[in-house]
């Protein structure tokens, strides 16, 4: 975790706050959606993600610790100040209103299964009681369903390692494909 230790110096509160971030985010919304709510498959929503989570992910893309051919070149040129401003901006946006964006729950049995796996897996202990995220742990409530599936597979396969004590690798490793499908179904509809 040497890279993460060195990067930690870059993380902090934005000095000029979310206003600067809004101008810098103009290039991001083409993919991540107006207001940070993604309408694009495999592109995550950023609205209302914890500031720290956003900053860490940008630092990970910038250093190449998180591999992604789309995001690495975008994060590469960002300064530490850009990272803070962008983090503050997207954290300040409202999450998608579930009553507006909610897809019909065509598989209530998957919702129930996902809820139970989330309880057994103690996802809330890090992601918060409403799964709205906490510090470096992402908001997972209301995230795009197929993106949650992708993220969990990436952790399980070791393609994505994340920060700290590799928390998600341990969490994802024992999950089977059906568990992942159910978790994503449940969490994306919160
Ligand atoms: C060309 C499309 C595109 C643009 C433009 C773009 N992104 Fe992304 N972004 C992606 C994709 C695709 C991913 C998912 C990567 C993966 O699957 O690991 C992503 C992931 C992220 C993540 C990780 C979120 C999470 O929940 O894991 C952050 C943070 C992020 N982008 C911030 C930004 C910011 C800030 C900008 C503008 C400076 C930006 N992106 C511009 C496509 C884009
Ligand atoms: C020990 C703490 C911890 C536990 C328990 C935990 N998580 Fe996480 N989770 C994290 C952290 C920290 C991150 C950010 C990791 C990174 O930097 O990639 C994360 C990231 C994620 C992501 C990626 C989100 C995104 O937008 O990129 C998903 C999905 C996720 N967790 C789902 C779950 C589920 C489902 C469970 C329960 C089965 C769970 N987590 C349990 C700490 C935890």
3D structure, described in words:
The chain is an all-alpha fold. The chain has two domains: 83 residues, Orthogonal Bundle (Cytochrome Bc1 Complex, Chain D, domain 2); 89 residues, Cytochrome Bc1 Complex, Chain D, domain 2 (Orthogonal Bundle). The protein has twelve helices and no strands. Helix 1 packs across helix 4 and helix 2 packs across helix 6. It is globular and about 45 Å long. The N terminus is likely disordered. It binds heme C (2 copies). The site of one heme C (HEC) has 25 residues, from helix 9, helix 10 and helix 11. This is Cytochrome C. Keywords: Electron transport, Heme, Iron, Metal-binding, Periplasm, Transport. InterPro entries: Cyt_c-like_dom (IPR009056), Cyt_c-like_dom_sf (IPR036909), Cytochrome_c4-like (IPR024167), Cytochrome_c_Oxidase_Subunit (IPR050597). One of its GO terms (molecular function) is electron transfer activity.
Secondary-structure element pattern, one letter each: HHHHHHHHHHHH
* CATH class membership of the largest domain: Mainly Alpha
CATH fourth-tier homologous superfamily of the largest domain: Cytochrome c-like domain
Q: In percent, how helical is the residue content?
A: 40-55%
Decide which structural class fits the backbone.
Answer: mainly alpha
Overall geometric form: globular
Say how many strands there are: 0
> What oligomeric assembly is this protein in?
single chain
- Biggest sheet record: none
Q: What ions, cofactors and ligands are bound?
A: heme C
Flag low-confidence runs. Answer: 1-6
> Which radius of gyration do the C-alpha atoms yield?
16 Å
Number of domains: 2
Binding site for heme c 2: 123, 126-127, 168
Binding site for heme c 1: 28, 31-32, 71
Main location: periplasm
Subcellular location: Periplasm
């Amino acid at each position: 975790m040497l890279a993460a230790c060195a990067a930690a110096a870059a993380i902090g509160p934005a000095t000029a706050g979310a206003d600067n971030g809004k101008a810098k985010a103009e290039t991001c919304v083409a993919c991540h959606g107006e207001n940070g709510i993604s309408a694009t498959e495999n592109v995550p929503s950023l609205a209302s993600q914890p500031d720290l989570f956003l900053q860490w992910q940008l630092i990970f893309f910038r250093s190449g610790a998180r591999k992604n051919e789309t995001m690495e070149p975008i994060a590469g040129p960002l300064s530490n100040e850009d990272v803070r401003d962008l983090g503050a901006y997207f954290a300040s946006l409202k999450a998608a209103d579930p009553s507006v964006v909610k897809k019909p729950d065509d598989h209530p049995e998957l919702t129930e299964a996902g809820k139970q796996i989330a309880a057994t897996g103690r996802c809330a202990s890090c992601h918060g009681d409403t799964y709205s995220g906490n510090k470096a742990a992402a908001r997972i409530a209301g995230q795009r369903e197929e993106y949650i599936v992708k993220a969990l597979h990436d952790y399980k396969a070791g393609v994505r390692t994340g920060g700290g004590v590799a928390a998600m690798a341990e969490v994802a490793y024992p999950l089977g494909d059906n568990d992942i499908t159910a978790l994503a179904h449940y969490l994306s509809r919160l």
